[in-house]
Hints:
single chain, alpha+beta, Methylamine Dehydrogenase, Chain H, 3 domains, 4-stranded antiparallel beta sheet, 6 helices, about 30% strand
Amino acid sequence: xxxxxxxxxxxxxxxxxxxxxxxxxxxxxxxxxxxxxxxxxxxxxxxxxxxxxxxxxxxxxxxxxxxxxxxxxxxxxxxxxxxxxxxxxxxxxxxxxxxxxxxxxxxxxxxxxxxxxxxxxxxxxxxxxxxxxxxxxxxxxxxxxxxxxxxxxxxxxxxxxxxxxxxxxxxxxxxxxxxxxxxxxxxxxxxxxxxxxxxxxxxxxxxxxxxxxxxxxxxxxxxxxxxxxxxxxxxxxxxxxxxxxxxxxxxxxxxxxxxxxxxxxxxxxxxxxxxxxxxxxxxxxxxxxxxxxxxxxxxxxxxxxxxxxxxxxxxxxxxxxxxxxxxxxxxxxxxxxxxxxxxxxxxxxxxxxxxxxxxxxxxxxxxxxxxxxxxxxxxxxxxxxxxxxxxxxxxxxxxxxxxxxxxxxxxxxxxxxxxxxxxxxxxxxxxxxxxxxxxxxxxxxxxxxxxxxxxxxxxxxxxxxxxxxxxxxxxxxxxxxxxxxxxxxxxxxxxxxxxxxxxxxxxxxxxxxxxxxxxxxxxxxxxxxxxxxxxxxxxxxxxxxxxxxxxxxxxxxxxxxxxxxx
Length: 566
């Protein structure tokens, strides 16, 4: 693997990114010292900086309350998550922070909040055992959230006992006893996993997938995959399209051990390794659910009801991360190779072609993304995240970030706010201060390449616009000709013109002998049609004779007038 470069002279954890999350059109990063930065679309307060303005560069967020002496409470964040339009953060004391939640403060706009606020509505799920000698107060204070996750309009959390909590628009039992997307502002525990530990979890728009320990506590053993919620596209991987109110085991992984899971809007992706018996780190990526845009990576646009391996990924690789956008999927290996597949628009899946090129369109199979020309590997990768139509990766051990895809509202963090089909460096000041000359040169080459790409794209768009205008003009002319032909045909034959009235010789060969076609038409016409033709041509002949007579009379009158004047 390529050398990541010289060690950073500061070694300051505030310059190192350790975690990443992407929402519909915004991003969050977490630094080694517990700082949180955000950028992208600001609508609904998803950025968390007190404004709904778009941010083209990462901006730092403030947590905690201001003290009377002017200082700020010291809050260290250890986890982050992003849903479509909301964000979550987890502090080292187990407290959960959120923004775009309803609060009564100066930063509220309508029913959402523009800055991080502490979520105090967790209620512990714990039955006090009188024989244990633990008081109810002690039992409740022992609850601590260890991880947060978000997706769509849902929020999820896992506590120190492995209990899964969820709130937002979640698939739950309605008052009628049926499955429904129930809006809840209070975190609710998933009772089905009591006695076991939820280790990883992900959610799409209407479904949830969790990796759960086989025993009571998790000690690094193989995990079991469960799924529940709506299943209209087969995103649960249970072999049908029936919705599930309660979690069910995805049995496909009996011989494999899943260790990472991600959900798109209506599809799911997992990473697995062979169970215990193998010492290799060889990974397999499985996908299932909606495949209309190739987001499953199976070479087709067919949906899949069972987990199916992405066979075109290389063998003998160790995949460290997988994530899903609305309709695309990306994975990264420990060696720094990144593959993406699915919806092409704004994802950079065709780096050597414009949108109108022959290589554009949805990528039905994995495509390797390149960090630089002739340098496909992202050095020392840390994590990858997918938004609705963009992708971000942390590499160089946490000291560099790249992004590509839809760039509107500043979601790529490069300060330009335009779509980019190739990886572009996220312009975070903490990273840029330590940039090496090689990086600066690389950025210049990248900017030049992007300018050339933009010029080529503009030229193609101009040609396309000109072609479309010409096509519209031709369509207008064709419409007039068809209308004229229909009037003539109706006058002669008494019915509107239709495609079946076009002579066979003209349809098949493009040539037309009017004499032969006329004889053929007369030979196949019935008596009624011949009578109509006779009447039509008799009237036409009479009209022609009348017109000739009128013109002859005008000529005689003109000659007489000229003679009398002379």
